[in-house]
Amino acid sequence: MGEFVRLEVADGVGTIRLDRPKMNAIGLQLQTELAECAAEATERADVAAVVVYGGERVFAAGADIKEMSDLTYREMNVRGQALQTAFNAVAAIPKPTVSAITGYALGGGCELAMCTDLRFAADNAKLGQPEVLLGIIPGAGGTQRLPRLVGPAKAKDIMFTGRMVDAAEALEIGLVDRLFPAESVYDEALAWARQFVGAASLALRGIKEATDRGLEVDLATGLEIERHVFSALFATEDQKAGMRSFIENGPGKATFEGK
Fold first, then answer.
1. Which residues are catalytic?
2. Where are the domains of the chain?
3. How far is residue 21's CA from residue 10's CA, in Å, rounded to a whole number?
4. Hey, which CATH number is domain 5-194, 3.90.226.10, 1.20.120.1730, 1.10.8.60, 3.90.1570.10?
5. What is the pLDDT of residues 132-182, one digit of tens each?
6. Distances from the Cα of 119 to the Cαs of 19, 101, 131, 236, in angstroms?
């Protein structure tokens, strides 16, 4: 249990909860605790899916500027690697993940949200990459993940201007996936995550691996990745149980054990 980040598990769903008042500024300690929670969520068999949540008022307003302002190039080069490592740990959780975004998700907050598979946002949320206004660029994946989500032109516009993107535009361009009233965002994210409790966890892991790895390579290589992951699942008990249940009882009635 960290001071600023904790993993809360209930009914098969893990919530990675950011809790650093007032704005969940992403400093070094928070980054370290975030990576630890991501590793715990990855390892725990009782966690089928993960929600990343900053609380009712704000997701995360960005990096801790006071902590970074006087760093040298050499110091920031080391710290930047640690920052990306923490965020990559969230992206690498081999289970379905969703961000529940309230208030602001700016800078590092937006970058963290982009590390999850889906993003549910409050209808009054604000997202953006305002680093250019500080004389820097996004350093936790923004220049890479944002273009992959919304396309290079829209991503460059958001990063060039440093402007805030309101929830309606974020939905329109694909930066977020669903909008809800602020008071129900977290509950909706939990409901989405709960559908994977008891699901075919190895197949879910395979879908995420094949999709994420495939996006980084050409189509032919991606198809090879898919073929290997697809074939590997035929060595699992879940595949046997799922197909046997389909033959005997019809679709959607199999019991899976993650083996």
1. 63, 108, 111, 131
2. 5-194, 201-249
3. 24
4. 3.90.226.10
5. 999 999 999 999 999 999 999 999 999 999 999 999 999 999 999 999 999
6. 19, 7, 21, 31
